[in-house]
Amino acid sequence: MKIDIGIEEKTRGEIAEGLSRLLADTYSLYLKTHNFHWNVTGPMFQTLHLMFETQYNELALAVDLIAERIRALGFPAPGTYSEFSRLSSIEETAGVPKAKEMIRLLVDGHETVARTARSLFSTVDKASDEPSADLLTQRLQVHEKTAWMLRSLLEE
What we know:
Structural class: mainly alpha
CATH topology: Ferritin
Distance between the termini: 58 Å
Oligomer: single chain
CATH architecture: Up-down Bundle
Radius of gyration: 16 Å
CATH class: Mainly Alpha
CATH superfamily: Ferritin, core subunit, four-helix bundle
Number of strands: 0
Strand content: under 5%
Number of domains: 1
Mean pLDDT: 96
Shape: elongated
Order of helices and strands: HHHHHH
């Protein structure tokens, strides 16, 4: 059935493409955060283990919201590792870094997701796509706050 929500198909496709990049970045950050949760060691173990768990749980909920918005726009959401690898701006981390490096890598990841989200506003705003704008705003708030909190752990 034809979608008639007041946004042309071409524009919906552009928004869905951008949201697919956001989904891939978010999922990649989810996986990295979960990996670090499992593998963190050192004097900050308890703090980081719990913090990373809170963060990956939030990211797990976020990927669902992003994917559902893509579907509401009438496009399939990417859902494979190969698609996420192709679409994501976040690089995998080889091995098991030390705790402080994990923190630095997660700061970079959250800032990367924030940049991806922010890059979509022009297209979303032109289309008067308030639901996508709202989703992007919420994601920016989470990623900017999380990056700040993680950065604070690196202060001497």
